[in-house]
Amino acid sequence: MDFNVKKLASDAGVFFSRAMQFTEEKLGQAEKTELDAHFENLLARADSTKNWTEKILRQTEVLLQPNPSARVEEFLYEKLDRKVPSRVTNGELLAQYMTEAANDFGPGTPYGKTLIKVGETQRRLGAAERDFIHSASINFLTPLRNFLEGDWRTISKERRILQNCRLDLDACKARLKKAKAAEAKAAAEHELRLTQTEFDRQAEVTRLLLEGISSTHVNHLRCLHEFVESQTNYYAQCYQYMLDLQKQLGRFSGTFVGNTESSSPPPAATSPPAVGAATLPAVPTIPVVPTIVGVPNTVAESVLNPNEVKPPASGTRKARVLYDYEAADSSELALLADEMITVYSLPGMDPDWLIGERGNQKGKVPVTYLELLS
């Protein structure tokens, strides 16, 4: 018990001595041992690494999981060392709703068929997103967390010990200056040698840990490359899925011409712009075949027969094809990128389509695949 009392008294004395030294330094009443410039640079680099790693980690978490409640739930599961339950992605949930809507509206209707096709693609997009999140969490987020919760905590601990050693050293220097008697000076000098040795040892330990930040950067660089590769693969998958979907929808495009119950979906493409892109404002300037009184409008009543259509007397326009297009049926004209064709419109025709002519060939063509020339 006496030993414990003496130890508590000793610890209290050391704490009081450090507090006094720290206070006097802040007030400018005591000298402070300065670290060399290289050491200070190592400290600044370590602090910068820690701060930016925290910011990158937090923002990447937001990127992968925008829902803050879900992030908190995942954090709690992680701290409890329990497996995070599987969560349905937004794409997969959208796919479920589209499929249910298609069954309700009728899977055989044009709208129902399209909902099913789009729903299948959304499901594939959701699965790809799930794989990307899993890969990014393991290959990128986990190493960043390991640094903050492992290496950085060790560095912080050793820096606090070094700070205490430095306060002890400077307090000994102050006591040596104040010592008058020879015996007091000898005791102060002996204490100073011990504290100086301890300070030098701790400074070397801390220096080695701080220099290890370079290895941390190399490790994080490798993880960053893996993150970029995962993200590239994810977006490439999404792009391919959407291309496949557009090609599938393009096969249905002729079905909707003249259908007053639904509008024409965007046609298939290699990489087409969406309907409503910058090319659309030029559509009203396309020459239009005049409507003859008493003659029924073939576009409004039935599927267009291009062979029965004649170009307008007022002239036509030239257009350059932007993307390859595969005709869905005999009423459409297949296109090859960069070729030149003649185009014009018909009264009552779907604004997303024009009549295109190439030599003796004639058929409907999607506006979004064309660059209209003046």
How would you describe what is shown here?
The structure is a single chain. This protein folds into two domains: 31-257, Arfaptin homology (AH) domain/BAR domain (Substrate Binding Domain Of Dnak, Chain:A, Domain 2, Up-down Bundle), CATH 1.20.1270.60; 317-373, SH3 Domains (SH3 type barrels), CATH 2.30.30. Helices cover 60% and strands 7% of the residues. It is built from eight helices and five strands. A five-stranded antiparallel β-sheet has the order 4-3-2-1-5, with no helix packed on it. The longest helix has 69 residues, at 110-178. The radius of gyration is 37 Å and the shape is elongated. Residues 314-374 form the SH3 domain.
The count of helical stretches stands at: 8
Structural class: alpha+beta
The ordered H/E elements are HHHHHHHHEEEEE
Specify Rg, calculated over alpha carbons.
37 Å
The figure for the number of domains is: 2
* Uncertain runs: 254-271, 273-286, 288-303
Please give the number of β-strands: 5
Helix content: 55-70%
Subunit structure: Homodimer, and heterodimer with SH3GLB1.
Family: Belongs to the endophilin family.
Organism: Aythya fuligula (Tufted duck)
Keywords: Coiled coil, Cytoplasm, SH3 domain
Outline the fold blueprint.
Layout: H1 2-26, H2 37-64, H3 68-79, H4 90-105, H5 110-178, H6 182-211, H7 213-252, H8 298-301, E1 317-321, E2 340-344, E3 353-358, E4 361-366, E5 370-372
Antiparallel strand pairs: 1-2, 1-5, 2-3, 3-4
Helix pairs in contact: 1-5, 2-5, 4-5, 5-6, 5-7
Keywords: Coiled coil, Cytoplasm, SH3 domain
Pfam families: BAR, SH3_9
Organism: Aythya fuligula (Tufted duck)
